[in-house]
Write a structure and sequence with these properties.
Layout lengths: L14 E9 L3 H16 L2 H9 L17 E2 L2 E7 L3 E8 L2 E11 L5 E10 L2 H13 L2 H22 L4
Antiparallel strand pairs: 1-6, 2-3, 3-4, 4-5, 5-6
Length: 163
C-alpha cells in the first residue's frame, strides 16, 4: 500500500460527469487496454509535471498497474475489481477528486466502458480551478480522448490472433 492514502469515501465526492463508449471486445481485453492506456499516459512527462506543479499527494508511478495501491502522477488506485471497476483518487491544493472506470458487458456482446468523475473544489482557488478545468470543457476533451484510445487499443488486441 502507498504511504500516503487519501482516506475519504469516493462516493462522498460530488458527481461531475460520466462519459460512455461501446467497445467490441471482451471485458478482460478492455480491462487490460484501460490499464495499459492509463499507465502509458501517466508515464508521460506532462502528467508528472502537472502533478508536481499542483502539489499532488502522488507524483510518481509505483506499484502494480491496475491494483489497489498503484500510484501514478495525481492518483492512487483505491478500488480494483478486475475486470469491472477501477477507482483512482487524487488530491492537490485545489481539489480532491476521483476517476471511476466501469466495464460492463451488455447483452449485445459489446462492452460499455464508462469514466465517471467526482470532485470537490474547496475555497475560492478551488472554484477558479474548477472553472479552468471543468468550465472550459477541457476535462471532457481529455476523458473522451481516453475512452477512444482505450477502445482502439482493446479492439486492436481483440483482432490479433492468439500467440
Amino acid at each position: 500500500m502507498p504511504d500516503r492514502i487519501i482516506d475519504i469515501p469516493l462516493e462522498s465526492l460530488p458527481f461531475i460527469d460520466e462519459r460512455f463508449i461501446d467497445v467490441a471486445a471482451r471485458p478482460e481485453t478492455v480491462w487490460r487496454a484501460m490499464v495499459k492506456e492509463i499507465d502509458t499516459m501517466a508515464r508521460g512527462t506532462r502528467w508528472g509535471r502537472a502533478a508536481k506543479g499542483l502539489r499532488c499527494v502522488h507524483t510518481e508511478t509505483k506499484g502494480e498497474p491496475g491494483q489497489i495501491g498503484w500510484t501514478l502522477p495525481g492518483f492512487v488506485a483505491t478500488r480494483s475489481v478486475e475486470p469491472g471497476v477501477l477507482a483512482l483518487m487524487g488530491k492537490h491544493r485545489f481539489a480532491t477528486y476521483a476517476l471511476i472506470v466501469t466495464i460492463l458487458e451488455k447483452p449485445s456482446g459489446l462492452v460499455l466502458l464508462s469514466l465517471q468523475t467526482r470532485a470537490e473544489f474547496p475555497g475560492r482557488k478551488g472554484r477558479l480551478y474548477r472553472n479552468a478545468v471543468i468550465g472550459t470543457r477541457g476535462h471532457v476533451v481529455v476523458v473522451k480522448g481516453m475512452l477512444r484510445r482505450i477502445r482502439r487499443r482493446a479492439e486492436r488486441a481483440r483482432a490479433r490472433p492468439p500467440v
